[in-house]
Amino acid sequence: QVQLVESGGGLVEAGGSLRLSCVASERTFSWYPMAWFRQAPGAEREFVAAINWNGGRIGYADSVKGRFSISRDSSVHTVYLQMNSLKPEDTAVYYCARRESSDWGTEVWEYSSWGQGTQVTVSS
Predict the structure, then answer these.
(1) What pLDDT is stored for residue 25 in this prediction?
(2) Mean pLDDT of 2-13
(3) N or C: which end of the chain has fewer CB within 10 A?
């Protein structure tokens, strides 16, 4: 079972930036699509962004398009989420996830491996 460890969360003012990282424990990281989800208090976990195995296909939730950017570096088994122009409504615990399939999806149930999450808090 792959281990996924997120880092990079924190407290930032509205308009600021953060970069989240997710390191996978296995070299099989490079075979599979990866995604970021987030969960605000009292809300369902929701899709944020995803990237296929080679970075050739990327997708974003409408709420983060133009502000967030997902990327991956297979040499260090890491997927990143660059978050710019942050808003208070971006406050949530952010999770990375791996889907053992040929392409990414946007539903929580499609992903079998999850990290423990990293808190992002955006103050107004």
Answers:
(1) 92
(2) 96
(3) N
DSSP state of 65: T
Contact 46, 62 (CB under 8 A): no
Nearest to 68 by CA among 8, 6, 17: 17
Residues in a beta bridge with 83: 18, 68
Residue type at position 100: E
Cα–Cα nearest to 55, from 37, 75, 30 = 30
> What is the pLDDT, as a whole number, of residue 30?
83
pLDDT above 80 for 66 = yes
**What is the 3-state secondary structure of 13-30?**
ECCCCEEEEEEECCHHHH
Cβ(8)–Cβ(121) below 8 Å: no
